[in-house]
Specification:
Elements: H1 3-43, H2 45-53, H3 59-82, H4 89-121, H5 126-152, H6 176-202, H7 205-214, H8 222-225, H9 227-256, H10 267-288, E1 303-305, E2 313-315
Helix pairs in contact: 1-3, 1-10, 3-4, 3-10, 4-5, 4-6, 4-10, 5-6, 6-9, 9-10
């Protein structure tokens, strides 16, 4: 009879050690995400000073700062909380809400920055903006509801005396299917955005005119023929691939490692990916608009203008027959 409680105690200890090991792995992933994020911030610090901090304040600048520094600060706090063995119960009771909504906030800001680029690509079409806002808002409303329901089901427990566990002692979200639905919808919307921006440029009149005028020129000369279009295509593709890959891996972790704390190992990398991809999206565009374009062959081009009212609009395209000295300079100030 005495072997029954002994077996139960042994099983409980094994579960405890497994939880500690999983938490350690999640912390390592978070630290690695912070290191990657900090490294990228160092690489782009000069660009950021020139293109962001010295520029006037616009809503795009605010979005850039939010997506980058909110994510970075949260990831640092995440590491601090998850490695602290003396986190108070009052902090832990609020922590699931912070941890639950922070990845969604980063995804929201990053997605909205990409939405602005699609809106610009479609010539500030009101119909396209309405469509984009509909699917974007629908996605985020569903996500907020799901996250709220999941966090409400999380149980925060006081610490067990004699066991210096790092972080907060909480249960896992009770309904994994809800979480899966949330991130699957996120991937679907990201895919729709990617298809829209690719279709606009690859099937648009500007691209057809460029390809007709290029004749037998190599497709790799496209970067010189239409640098702004190339930038949209390149950055849009990279943004989608980074976000989609991080999102897919996060889904795999949630499914394969369900029921264990380590299922959250992909969230820190997902946040870092959204923040880095979104900030690069902004910096690359701003940087391209400050660089002179040395090209002797341009049949058609899309140039961006940042007017005083904010937002991205298209300036008139220029013909390749027009001499460079006759082209009116576009106002790229922001």
């Amino acid at each position: 009879m005495s072997s029954i409680p002994s077996a139960a105690v042994l099983q409980a200890e094994q579960q405890l050690f497994q939880a500690v090991s999983d938490t350690f792995a999640v912390n390592l992933a978070a630290v690695a995400a912070v290191a990657w994020f900090a490294y990228d911030a160092l690489l782009t610090i000069n660009q950021e000073i020139e293109l962001v901090w010295k520029a006037r304040w616009t809503y795009q600048k605010v979005l850039y700062i939010l997506v980058k520094y909110y994510s970075l600060i949260f990831l640092i706090i995440l590491v601090g909380v998850n490695t602290n063995t003396n986190v108070s119960l009052s902090v832990c009771q609020r922590w699931p809400w912070v941890f639950g909504y922070s990845p969604s906030i980063t995804a929201f800001i990053g997605g909205f920055m990409f939405l602005i680029r699609i809106y610009a690509a479609y010539g500030r079409s009101i119909k396209m903006l309405a469509f984009l806002l509909f699917i974007f808002c629908s996605e985020n409303i569903i996500t907020c509801v799901i996250v709220g329901l999941e966090v409400k089901g999380v149980v925060v427990s006081p610490r067990t005396p004699g066991y210096p566990l790092p972080g907060c002692v909480t249960s896992l979200p009770p309904h994994i299917n809800r979480t899966l639905v949330s991130w699957i919808i996120n991937l679907v919307v990201s895919t729709i955005f990617f298809v829209l921006i690719m279709a606009q440029f690859l099937l648009g009149g500007e691209m057809k005119a460029i390809l007709r005028g290029a004749g037998t020129r190599s497709i790799w000369e496209f970067r010189k023929l239409a640098p702004i279009i190339f930038l949209f295509l390149r950055d849009g593709t990279l943004y989608f691939l980074m976000v989609a890959t991080a999102g897919a891996l996060n889904l795999v972790f949630i499914v394969v490692l369900a029921g264990r704390p380590i299922q959250e190992v992909g969230l820190s990398w997902l946040m870092a990916t959204y923040a880095i991809a979104s900030s690069r999206l902004y910096l690359n565009l701003r940087g391209s608009l400050t660089q002179p374009v040395a090209s002797t062959f341009r049949t058609s081009d899309i140039e961006l203008d940042f007017p005083s009212t904010g937002g991205v609009v298209f300036a008139p395209a220029f013909s390749s027959e027009m001499d460079a000295s006759q082209r009116a300079p576009a106002d790229y100030s922001e």
